[in-house]
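Database export, one record per block. Field names are fixed; values are copied verbatim from the stored entry.
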Amino acid sequence: MTPLSSVLIVDDEPAVRELMARWVTSLGLRPKTAASADEALEALREQHCDLAVIDVMMPGHDGLWLATQLQRDHPHTAVVIATAYTELIDADAEQRPIADMLVKPFQRDRFALAVDRGRQWRKETLEEVQWHARLSIEVADRAEHVIAAIARRAPGVSEAQALNVLAVERMPETMAHSERVCRYAQSVARELGLEQELGMTLELGGRFHDIGKVAMPEALLTKPSPLTPGELGIMRRHVALGAEILEATDTLAWVAPLVMTSHEWFNGGGYPNRLAGSSIPLATRIITVVDAYDAMTQDRSYRMGTNAQNAVAELLRCTPTQFDPEVVTAFLGVLGTH
C-alpha cells in the first residue's frame, strides 16, 4: 500500500499557503503549493500528490470545480475542502469523494486530523482499486472457462443444453428467475398476438438474458448488501459478457443482441449503448418488463421481495421512461390487472 507522502495546498492567499505548507512539513510530509485551480492542475501534471487541500473561494475556477477535475483526472488523490463559507457548499458536493472539510479558521490539530482522514480515504480507495482489479481478472477467467466448457461438451449435447447446465450449476436462483422470465415473456407475446413470431426468440432470450452473470464472482452474486458503485460497474459487464459467450457459439450467436440490449431503457437512459424506443428489439422490450417484475417480487440476498401490487405500481411509475407502454399494458393483461 502506497503511503501518503505529499500534500498540495491550493489557496489564493500566500500567507495561508505558507502556514499550511509549514504544517505539512511538521507532519513529515512533502508540501507543494498553488495559488489557483489552473496552477494546481499544472502542478499535478508535473508531479502526483497524494492529498490536495483546496480552498473553495478563489479567483477563476473555484475549489469545487477543481475537486471535480481531480475526481476525473486524479482519482487516487484525496481531497480536503477548506472554506469559511459552508453555505456555499452545494448539495452535490456531498456526492463528491471528499475526505474531509475544514471550516476556516482552523488550527494545526484540526488540519492534522484532516490529513489523517485523507490518508485513510486514500488507503481505502487504493484497496478498492486492487479489489476491483482482482474481480476483473476473475470475471475474464470465468468467461473463458464457460466458452471452453461449451466447446468441449459431450457428443449429442447442444450448445444451449450445455450452457444451461453450466448456468444452473453456477447460479440456480438466477436461472430459476430466467425460466420465469421466459414463461412471462411468452405470455406477453400471446397477449400481443405475436406468439408465433417471437416464440423461439423469447424462449432463448428469456432463458439466457442474464447468462453473463455466470462469469461474475461469487462475492458479487451472493453479497448480502447492495453493491458499491465500483462493484455495480463490474456487475454491469454481465451484459457484454453474456453477448460474448453467446457469440462464441455456432447456434446461439443470434441471441447475443437480445442480451446486449437487455438493460437498455425505452427513453434511452439505460446501458451500455443508450438505445431508445424501436432501436431496442421488441423481444428485449418484453423481456425487460417481465424481468423487472419478477426481480421485484422475489427475495434477494440483500432484500425481501415486494408484493405484486407494489411491483405493478413500480412498473407503471417507470413507464415510459424505462419500459415500453405497449408492453406494460400487455403484461398487465397477462396478470389480469387491466
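Remark 1: The mean pLDDT is 92.
Remark 2: The chain has two domains: 6-125, 153-335.
End of record.
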